[in-house]
Write a structure and sequence with these properties.
The protein is mainly alpha-helical. Helices cover 57% and strands 2% of the residues. Strand 1 and strand 2 form a beta hairpin.
């Protein structure tokens, strides 16, 4: 699994567990914070089915091959050999172009809907009402049924073909062809990733990554357009990267409600509210840090903590008997990390 090498750095020690949990969308504030520090949050939820055992075996193999080396117990860095192997892999395999879209749509549902859409429109173009429907979830079938009842009088075949031509027009011909072979239609049965890989000379995982990437980007393409297919996509497009509970907490916070009242309103502990706001601080572009960190606290943080943010430790505050919560310390790290990223 040399594709994992892209998530490691030559200079910054990174913990494999954080990489795995970000890729598989296992959310804790700690994982999200270190994902921010590692600059891999765009890859959140890209690999939801990633198995811990296989991932750990791959890390062990990369260590044995001397692609990764442990640095003072802080994590692993790429070796020169690891950098070369990463670069060779990226050159010879499919590269996901828009990983950040994977957590902006309900991807499994969208992919079910998309497969159904292609089949239903294709069969309708030939006025065929008798065919085996591709495997899909009840929710996907319901979505297609409601949508089709509203738009069936449109000439859907040419309309869908037009959207596909516009979308795939800028892709490599080989990639566009592989993508289309994954769909069933009139007198056409979808090929598996394995079948396409054999015929194209790619790996099965390349085809899987291509499918996920292009289906996510097609969803974004349709959501930004004005076609009749937009109404299929918009209900499954997420408006926020926050968890539902964190989003509700942030809504109250943004509206100016004091933290004590948010706790009472939501019937949650102060520590839980703090976790929600840390999550919001990571994801919300213009989060108001100054409301939670006083001028004096910011001045103290600036005096005590300099240099590599990865190496800042809360114990430094405790050692000097400063009564500042860990949540505020983490908030300051998040604020400074986002400023650092903005300057890159």
């Amino acid at each position: 699994m040399d594709e994992l090498l892209r998530f490691f750095s030559k200079t910054q020690p990174r913990r494999p567990a954080v990489v795995r949990q970000v890729l598989s969308n296992k959310r804790t504030v700690s994982n999200l914070f270190w994902g921010l520090r590692y600059r891999i949050l765009d890859w959140l939820a890209v690999w939801p089915q990633l198995e811990k055992a296989k991932f750990d075996d791959s890390i062990t193999e990369m260590i044995e091959k001397k692609y990764l080396v442990e640095i003072n117990g802080e994590g692993f860095c790429l070796t020169e050999l690891g950098v070369k192997s990463r670069d060779v892999f990226l050159k010879n395999h499919y590269n996901i172009k828009s990983p950040y879209l994977f957590c902006r749509f309900k991807m499994q549902l969208w992919q079910d809907i998309l497969r159904l859409l292609m089949q239903v429109v294709s069969e309708a173009s030939y006025e065929n009402n008798h065919y085996y429907v591709v495997a899909s979830s009840f929710q996907a079938r319901t979505s297609i049924k409601i949508w089709y009842q509203k738009y069936y009088e449109h000439d859907l075949g040419p309309l869908l073909a037009e959207q596909l031509f516009l979308f795939l027009g800028n892709e490599k011909a080989q990639d566009a062809d592989a993508f289309m072979q994954l769909f069933s239609g009139h007198e056409l049965v979808a090929k598996t990733a394995e079948q396409i890989a054999v015929n194209s000379g790619c790996s099965t995982r390349d085809i899987e990554f291509l499918w996920n990437d292009l289906s996510a980007r097609f969803a974004e393409f349709l959501s930004e357009g004005a076609s009749v297919f937009k109404n299929l996509v918009m209900p499954i497009k997420r408006t926020s990267l926050l968890s539902k509970s964190a989003e509700e907490t942030y809504r109250l916070y943004k509206n100016g409600m004091p933290l004590s009242k948010i706790e009472a309103e939501r019937r949650l502990k102060g520590s839980t509210i703090a976790e929600h706001l840390l999550e919001a601080a990571i994801f919300v572009p213009n989060f108001n840090f100054q409301r939670l960190i006083s001028v004096e606290e910011a001045r103290l943080f600036k005096k005590l903590f300099k240099g590599d943010i990865d190496k800042w430790r809360y114990e430094e505050l405790q050692k000097n008997n400063f009564k500042i919560s860990f949540a505020k310390f983490r908030l300051y790290q998040i604020e400074q990390s986002k400023l650092e990223i903005a300057e890159e």
